[in-house]
Fold each of these.
Amino acid sequence: MASRPRTLYEKIWDSHVVETREDGTALLFIDRHLIHEVTSPQAFEALRTSGRIVRRPDLTLAVPDHNLPTTPRLDANGRRIPIADTESAAQLAALEGNAPAFGIRYINASAAEQGIVHVVGPEQGFSLPGATIVCGDSHTAAHGGVGALAFGIGTSEVEHVLATQTLLLRKSLTMEVRVDGELGPGVTAKDLILHIVGVVGSAGGNGHVIEYRGAVFEAMSVEGRLTVCNMSIEAGARAGLIAADDTTFAYLKDRPYAPKGAEWDAAVAWWRSLATDPGARFDKSVRIDAADIGPTVTWGTSPEDTAPIGGSVPAPESFADPSKQEAARKSLEYMGLTPGQKLAEVEVQNVFIGSCTNSRIEDLRAAAAVIKGRHKAANVKWAIVVPGSGLVKRQAEAEGLDKVFTDAGLEWREPGCSACLGMNPDKVPPGERCASTSNRNFVGRQGPGARTHLVSPAMAAAAAVTGRLCDVRELIG
Amino acid sequence: MQPVSQIEGRAIPLGRKNVDTDVIIPARWLKTVTREGLGKGAFENLRAEPGNLFDDPRFARAPILIAGDNFGCGSSREHAAWAMLDLGITCVIAPSFSDIFSSNAFKNGILTVVLPQDQVDRLLEVAQSEPIHVDLEHQTVTTPFQDRFEFAIDPFRKHCLIEGLDEVGLTLERDTAITDYETRHARDMPWLAHPTGVPA
């Protein structure tokens, strides 16, 4: 077996198989389990009902993120400000109670380390290359950006991992997405992954784990890689990953939960050995030339509905598949767009910069670079910037980015999932449009009737200052 | 989990592709700490449409849903499966499913049946007026018009569904194997063993 060339995914898989059943299902060991308030209460309840314990609380980390309001959390005296929504408050209280009751480390809502689980994991060095990482959230795929095998799970699986530290799985198929060349000015990791989702399609990756390969990913920062892997699920792939390299090691070194000293050296040696072997076979392969990608936006209600900002709203008849034609008609009706309309003329009333896709320091720098010296357009009613964690917020404030945003009329908020899915009070009003750096443009995702256009942080910033979807390259000259 | 073997009854002929989990249950319904009662938020946006299939008396408590490609894409929320169960749906037939949804469905005793598009189209037609029979044991879908379609299913999933087995309980029986692996893993990759400093 050892002589057969293997992919990165196969190497991580092989090193985590506890045992393989006769029917081919494997019991896979899980190295890291992230927990948040929305998908865990029923799992803890099930443990309680059946008198089961958490097998490895030391491999589990709990962080509240989905429900938290992004307004200040402590009053002038440092006392916690109660959460008005009683259901949100109850869900958050359940996590706060369950974590200590089961011996799990909990990062509280006002700690500097709090943030969106998928920002916190890599930032704390909890997410490591070659590790198996799960969380009851489909965007767990993000952690593949540090070279981990990371994927979202349902609540029954959360319970299974809590009780056994394993999952029963079948090995996935593999897909290579190779992007060679170099991204142009104003074209970011987000534009790239939106383009990839458009090419692969929202179901194209079903049953597969994607490995992103090629010069573009090698030259990319870890933040960019996290953005790319994050949206693998939008192409149907439960996980996406990028081989760890010197860029990854420099990012992780000295982070709180990262290995230290001799263990670090041993870890790096193993991490280097995980790269896909020359000659390893992928079940599916997609090749894209970076030169073909410009700033990209979505026009519909599926993340596969992408177009370059210089393009127009497509006519439903332009799709070959009749069911796609019907879906496009419904999307355009919901989005209030007409075929042929120039995307760069579409006005937006809201801007959201945040989410596990785009709320890291690099994202905020990119947005601030566009906004600096400009002001929010008059027709933009609501524009918020939500850092991915308290540490990102602190770093941004040290660099003066918060001032850039607030001087321009944008709001600077506390960390959390926020308007990506509107479980907290941050929602887009019905019928209004939002240029959003999040990951899903589904019907009603940002609030009932809300119309979402997915964009990069730089493009969201351009929309904030021009009041429309706008090619950021016009502003950065 | 309730054992599943034969499912017979009316089937909601939804047909549409890419039914995402935000469509099955919007995020505002996720603020619950229980699994029950989510049916009231199920397919909320579709049910807001006049004449929708979910509120059509012909399909009241229909145990089967027929959909297009990529059913259950998007979020990992198991609330989608709980909401459907609460409506009485215990089987979904579609040409393809998202990986996470089909896993969540299975763990709640909902059978996901993958059939080619032309067979799904035929069932969508039949479902307008007639019931459909899904036989998990023999892995067939049949109609009163003598249609008979065979489907494939993972043997382990089939076994668990028919017996109504608790997967956590099954895995806990493998405790020795897990402990052996943990020991080996901690020796080979000690940096993965104790990240948070909380005692194991």
Amino acid sequence: MSTITASHVAESHGHEEATGWKKYIWSLDHKIIGIQYLFTSLGFLLVGGALALLLRWQLAYPSTQVMPNGDVGNPISLPFINPQFYNALFTMHATVMVFLVVMPLLIGAFGNYLIPLKIGTGDMAFPLINELSYWFFLASGLIMLAGFFVAGGAAAGGWTSYAPLSTVAAYNGTKMGQTLWAAGIFINGLASIMGAFNYITTIVNMRAPGLGFFRLPLTVWALFITAFLLLLAVPVLSAAGAMLILDLNFGTSFFNPAKGGQPLLWQHLFWFFGHPEVYIMILPAMGMASDVLSIFSRKPIFGYKAMVFAMIAIGFLGFIVWGHHMFVSGMNLVLSAAFGVSTMVIAVPSAIKTFNWLGTIWGGSIRFTTAMLNALAFVAMFVIGGFSGIFMASTPVNIFVHHTYFIVAHFHYVLFGGSIFAIFASIYTWYPKMFGRMLDETLGKIHFALTFVFFNLCFFPMHNVGLGGMMRRIADPTAYEHLRSLQPINQFITLSAIGLGFSQLIFFWNFFRSLKQGRPAGKNPWQATTLEWTVDSPPGHGNFAVTPTVYHGPYEYSLPGHPRDFVMQNEPPAPDAGPGSPVRRPVHAG
Amino acid sequence: MSTATLTSPGHVPASAGGPRFTLPKFGMLVFLASEAMLFAGLIGGYIVLRLAQGPGNWPPPGAPEIGVRLPPTFLNWVMIVNTAILLSSSLTFHWGEVRMRKGGSGLIGYSLTALLGAVFLGVQAWEWHHLKGEGMWFDSFGTYGSCFFTMTGFHGLHVFLGLLGVLWVAARAGLRQMKLFSGQTPNPSHTFEELTGYYWHFVDVVWIFLYSILYVL
């Protein structure tokens, strides 16, 4: 493959390569924008993690605990955490992790970086809108976090911001913080929508010749479906956020029952967005984990089309299940049964995906790289989080566990155990492509082992304290008689959380050290098949010197009778097989 | 801004037969789906809030009547005419596009569109002012006031953004007309006109829905 020259770039991509510091401010290159998203959201990950550790410390050693000798405040508590600040901590922890870490890492960083490379094109359809999307995202994060510095502090009504708690200043105690939160959500939504229609346009129109939809890597399929969810769900949240701002500041009464408004309307609008949002945060993780599992098992994805249709089904069903977040809202029981059933139906495509992942690694010659370990952890943790999700789809169970730590355990198993492990798997897999150097495998495995152990020590006991009756969003568990016996478990969870948090420093050390000192990666360090591995690491501006032609599906590993155990997607076929020849099935040993 | 900086080059699409839409048009259509969901959220909320008031309480007692009555009131006539003005602006835009495609400039059609759009916004501003004079505002008459001003406000904001686009289109048409007069070849790219057209027609269609539920039903 020849190197890409500047003149080629100028004539074929409509925008010049930016250089120096300008590259990181004005560059329209999807790869730079992806890396901007990556660094920014890793920064926000540190913020969100710090907020989590502060709130965990308060739960283990409350500043308002009445000690046996009558003193108020545990001797090792953090006295600046009062109940209002505690509320702001968990609200902003969730907001940061959802909107500024998991979504931008999966969609902003990997979506931007991988889509054009994997479909064999030079850039996104609308590079300028792509860059604007990043700046809107950054602004939204800064606006939301600015809440910590205004009178009253940051938003404290939970990331769900239920009305009337969020809409009445006297209840939430921070009109300005709550308004900044809603404004941030609105701007963040604009960034998401800009990304979504850009991705859809790119994937539909700019695939390399021969790259039909059913030759797309599952990562691209997942991001494609996710883009539709963003496109259709996010604007509803934007509408709700605008109503929230108006209610708080301009005297409207959408959610104010004193003036004829409906607090439940907020819940419906929020969860109409909020449930697709759950899949927005897991579908790209599923897609990328699928690719990682296939690469390191040296086997094709088991049931490729079933995987695609399962993701489409999950995306569609995601729009008709939002009521399962509202079983305790006084909802009609017939309606809650309907929402319960539609929710349980999602277990079917989810199980298809899980069994296909197992089928993919079954009998493979597995390479236990750090990326693979993280992908395997993703599958295992997603199963645990998925199972507890099925419990909660059942209304009677939900009414019992709703608003307990059982829910907290559930969604951390899906969001951390699922999405974050998949993000680590993806970083370990595509870092060499992004920066041209390998991450250190030894540090990576230490990081993985510590993360995996501390993650389970931290979040699994939350199931127990939840079933023991511990409510979410309380600043001081020791204030409740029935929770005092659980306090040692809470302290254990907090210590595990600290272990989990500090284990991430190994990752950051590895990440920044390898930028300069990592082993050079070469074009295709993993012997993978898709188009991004045919170009230099990192790829030049414009990606491909010549638009590649695709002859193969994305997962042609271990084909019998082939000299290597993988076939690049753009490798011309053997003389006896035309480009349209059916994909030959590998025979696996044993 | 030229379209070259807006979009990547037209890559060969994977499907045979060539692209049905250019990239910007395709992207605009997908974006409009998102815009439709924004208004769907607002309209859905409106339906819930209105039904929750029960029959006979919408509009609430004492609130100015904005719904169409027989015989129509003066305010009814104003908004009927205003609706006709906005809808006809779609026709004039289309006329401009047809003239442009046939090699003309479309200047008259586009200028008329900008004029009609501006008149629509002006009349709506007058209506807001009039209703405020009668004591109805974002924060009065409960959800009745909240919904009316928020929904027409969101729509008005969209008309305003569309109007900026139409004004730019009209300016481009003026330039095109000058080149035609002097015998030069005008700019062959119609992308900006087509994108603005999609957006403008969309905003009109949204108004049909808003007018129906806010004023008629």
